[in-house]
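Shipment paperwork, digital attachment
Item: protein structure file
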Amino acid sequence: MMMNNTAANQFIRLMEILADLRGENGCPWDKEQTAKSLIPYMLEETYEIIEAIEENDDELLKEELGDLMLHILFQGFIAHENGKFHIADSIQHICDKLERRHPHVFGGETANDQKEIKLSWEAIKQKEKKRTSLLEGVPKNLPALTRARRIQEKASNVGFDWDKIDPVWDKVHEEIDELKEAIANENAEKVEEELGDILFSLVNLGRFLKISSEEALRITISKFSTRFNAMEDRLKKEGKSLTASTLEEMDAVWDEVKKSEKEQSKKQ
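Attachment content:
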């Protein structure tokens, strides 16, 4: 896909708007922002993009991509104000990086499969960053499930991985048994460790099944929240509150909500 003039013009327009917002007669809120103060908003926009993608909402995705673009340019604008670099330097950097790390596309080299491409990418990246460990560079602030998967992927890229899913399943069951043993021994520290091992092994299982554990958990949380809200609404219609209802009463309504969901799903 070639860049068209419309995209370039809108990019320039957004930069000009930012200049006005940060200018002498600009917006007081925008003028007082710093690179650090904008971090929460940038993270929020990122998660809103993820939500739009997961909900297959193209209109929302279009909007949220623009919102994130604003924050990317905002960071670049602040850096330029402080005499550090221009956003054009960032764009040049990623262009150069993509060309360097795709020698099979831009450098006349050949690659036989995706595994070979990944190995080449990691080797080039290690050399560029002057890293001593393959696992360096995975951000520590990533959500834990996502970070676990990225670490597992990096290890897999160099062959530290099972070939089949059966041993992955065995590892999941092994970790569950070890958690049960730690609980039976009332070893709180070991319980926490073994629970972490189970989560790590389940992320690995998801990776083998080509499922994002982070996304799967978000879907389950959303499903639970929807059902819980429906249960709460039904109890209110019956003149009851959650605190005044027994577990048996809540379970019964919960089952009704699930049954209603399945019936609705069959109609669609």
